[in-house]
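fyi for ur records
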Amino acid sequence: MLRTLAAVAAAALVACGSQQGAPGEPGTETGDEGASGQLALTRDAGGVRGTFTRGADVVAFSSRQVEAGVFELEVRLSGMTLTALLDADNGVSTLDGFASESGTDTQMLDADRALLGDFYGALNAELPAGAAAGDEARYLRRAVGQWAQHPSSVELPRLVMGEQGRGYTMLCSYAKCGGNFTGGCSSYNWYSYAKHDCQHGGFSATINQQIAQLGNHYSCSGDEYYLSGSTWVCGEPDHWSRPKVVGNCFGRCGGGCGGDTQYTLDATNHDGCVRNGHALASAYCDDQFVSATDDELFAPDCY
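which gave:
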């Protein structure tokens, strides 16, 4: 689901306008830029724990399995404590966030998201991809990924219910072009459509829809390409009518091209909102964020 925080500013701009070669030509694979800060992570029989330090900011974290398939997570930062109890087998999680000293309700602010985004990047750089990271570390990474995108207008205490046996709407096959999940596209596999609702209209409004090539294909100045007439342009179109877009792991859960590889319908719709004239934490994208949370926490990897 979504992008690195470094790309958020670009989401608020209308098409940056610099023309590039068509993505059909050799391009650059997209990926997370190196996060600032220092990660100290320890594994033992009790799970994983450690700290992430970025200047004067320190994040303390832990993740442990308290019973078969159930994981308890805690992340402390800047006077805030974030907790999660994840029942992976049943796809149910209880998430919370509160002021560390008083225990009162609080909300996620831009500075918190930025710090968590750097922490998430450090976890991606340190840990193996997918299940190879180990369950305690993998669910920590997934939880941090969704907290790093948590809008201020969504309450931190939440009960997240997964698909409960119905399965997630996976879009793994749409993330391939030319038969591959990553790299250049000799042919495209357009997905119709990434949709959202906002002040411009509902899900059926064509200006709230994008036709996206999902997957990790191409990057331009940390952004994506969109088709303007017959020319590929670097940037993000703002509420155009069904533009074709490609790049930056479109449709993937988590920030940018993180350590897990879930491509789902709900994550695609959240991407379509924050990449279509709205900032990452825009209240207009709250419903897409909430819908995609269970996907990010529990959906299986595509590869």
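Residues 1-22, 24-34 have pLDDT under 50 and may be disordered. thats all i got for now
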